[in-house]
């Protein structure tokens, strides 16, 4: 009896005891679908858009405005993800003395290294994605600009971008921020340093095909959006409140609130901007004519030396033919390139850059004169003139 009870108790305890759990395998690491193509292949995804933080835009605009009319540069920091270049921070570079580019490069490089080290210590963004530069009247093409962007596209992933801010257009109420990269055709020509007429024709290079533009988007944080919303709300000024001493201005219907006068925008007087723009156009045309004259002078030198070499070769052939008729040994052929220093064909890059600057000035002039023409026709219609 006792043995049967013990056996039953042992059986019940064995049944109640939990079975040993099977070994659980750790789940395999799952990469999200949005990150799957970023692994080891991010550099192969072409850039589609440049996304700027709202604070970055304000910093660039302030730096450019404070240094106007001098051009300023700075470094862009951020990250490129899935074809979007996200620019989250920037810092300006110190300005060097005009005409002292060699001595001003070293302090700028030391300052850049110091800033990146400081950002790294505070866990800030320290990944360089390009640079920004200010300009005026739409002309920014220069040799230094192209060299800097070419070095970035050789060293940075996705090549980096060049962000250009036009201060003069922003001053007229149209914020101008454009992102550019060098085209592959220009990079090949820049690598070989061949900007002759034949090289430009073979690659189809003009001032319009040096750069390719990328779309720019401005991204604001929710806190900044809320702040901008407060700025857009109408506020009651003391001047407008004094016009209604018997009641509160906020109690008036929206249609009865006074409006700010808009007649100053019809001012058709000549502005300094228009005069300065025309002056820059004339100066650029003079520089282009000077460059064309230098090119024509080099072409005449090359033609003169080639004519001398051809004359010498023809004379040597005639002498050898005469010696053969007389039964003498012909004279050895000499290296003409050593006897006649034929200068190489000059580069046409400077002329192409001047044409690009002239195109930028002309587009800005078109914008300014277009608005002025509208004002003049509006003023003419308001006065009832025929």
Automatic annotation (TrEMBL):
Main location: cytoplasm
GO BP: formation of cytoplasmic translation initiation complex
Entry GO CC: eukaryotic 43S preinitiation complex; eukaryotic 48S preinitiation complex; eukaryotic translation initiation factor 3 complex
GO molecular function, one term: metallopeptidase activity
Keyword field: Cytoplasm, Initiation factor, Protein biosynthesis
Family: Belongs to the eIF-3 subunit H family.
The protein's role, per its UniProt record: Component of the eukaryotic translation initiation factor 3 (eIF-3) complex, which is involved in protein synthesis of a specialized repertoire of mRNAs and, together with other initiation factors, stimulates binding of mRNA and methionyl-tRNAi to the 40S ribosome. The eIF-3 complex specifically targets and initiates translation of a subset of mRNAs involved in cell proliferation.
Species name: Dacryopinax primogenitus (strain DJM 731)
Entry-linked InterPro entries: eIF3h, eIF3h_C, JAMM/MPN+_dom, JAMM_MPN+_peptidase_M67A, MPN
Protein name: Eukaryotic translation initiation factor 3 subunit H
Keyword Ligase part of the UniProt annotation: no
CDD domains for the chain: MPN_eIF3h (cd08065)
Localization per Swiss-Prot or TrEMBL: Cytoplasm
Signal sequence bounds: none
HAMAP family for this protein: eIF3h
Quaternary structure and partners: Component of the eukaryotic translation initiation factor 3 (eIF-3) complex.
Gene3D superfamilies per UniProt: Cytidine Deaminase, domain 2
Top-level taxonomic group: Eukaryota
Record-annotated MPN domain positions: 50-186
């Amino acid at each position: 009896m006792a043995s049967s009870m013990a056996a039953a108790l042992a059986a019940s305890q064995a049944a109640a005891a939990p079975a040993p759990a099977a070994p659980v395998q750790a789940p395999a690491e799952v990469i999200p679908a949005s990150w799957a193509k970023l692994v080891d292949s991010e550099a192969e995804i072409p850039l589609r858009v440049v996304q700027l933080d709202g604070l970055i835009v304000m910093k660039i605009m302030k730096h450019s405005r404070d240094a106007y009319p001098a051009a300023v540069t700075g470094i862009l920091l951020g990250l490129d993800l899935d074809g979007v270049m996200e620019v989250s921070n920037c810092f300006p570079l110190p300005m060097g003395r005009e005409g002292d580019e060699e001595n001003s490069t070293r302090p700028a490089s030391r300052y850049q290294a110091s800033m990146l080290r400081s950002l790294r210590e505070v866990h800030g963004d320290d990944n360089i994605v390009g640079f920004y530069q200010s300009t005026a009247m739409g002309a920014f093409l220069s040799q230094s600009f192209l060299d800097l962007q070419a070095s970035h596209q050789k060293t940075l992933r996705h090549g980096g971008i060049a962000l250009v801010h036009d201060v003069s257009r922003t001053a007229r109420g149209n914020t101008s921020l454009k992102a550019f990269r060098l085209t592959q055709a220009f990079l090949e020509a820049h690598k070989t340093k061949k900007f002759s007429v034949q090289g430009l024709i073979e690659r189809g290079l003009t001032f319009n095909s040096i750069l390719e533009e990328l779309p720019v988007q401005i991204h604001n944080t929710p806190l900044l959006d809320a702040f901008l919303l407060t700025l857009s709300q109408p506020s009651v000024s003391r001047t407008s409140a004094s016009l209604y001493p018997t009641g509160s201005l906020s109690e008036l219907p929206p249609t009865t609130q006074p409006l700010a006068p808009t007649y100053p925008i019809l001012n058709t007087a000549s502005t300094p901007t228009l005069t300065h723009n025309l002056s820059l156009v004339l100066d650029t045309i003079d520089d282009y004519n000077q460059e064309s004259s230098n090119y024509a002078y080099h072409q005449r030198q090359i033609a003169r030396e080639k004519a001398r070499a051809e004359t010498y070769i023809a004379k040597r052939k005639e002498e050898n033919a005469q010696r053969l008729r007389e039964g003498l040994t012909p004279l050895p052929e000499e290296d003409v390139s050593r006897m006649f220093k034929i200068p190489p064909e000059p580069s046409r890059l400077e002329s192409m850059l001047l044409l690009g600057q002239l195109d930028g000035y002309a587009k800005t002039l078109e914008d300014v004169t277009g608005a002025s023409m509208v004002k003049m026709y509006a003023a003419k219609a308001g006065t009832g003139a025929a």
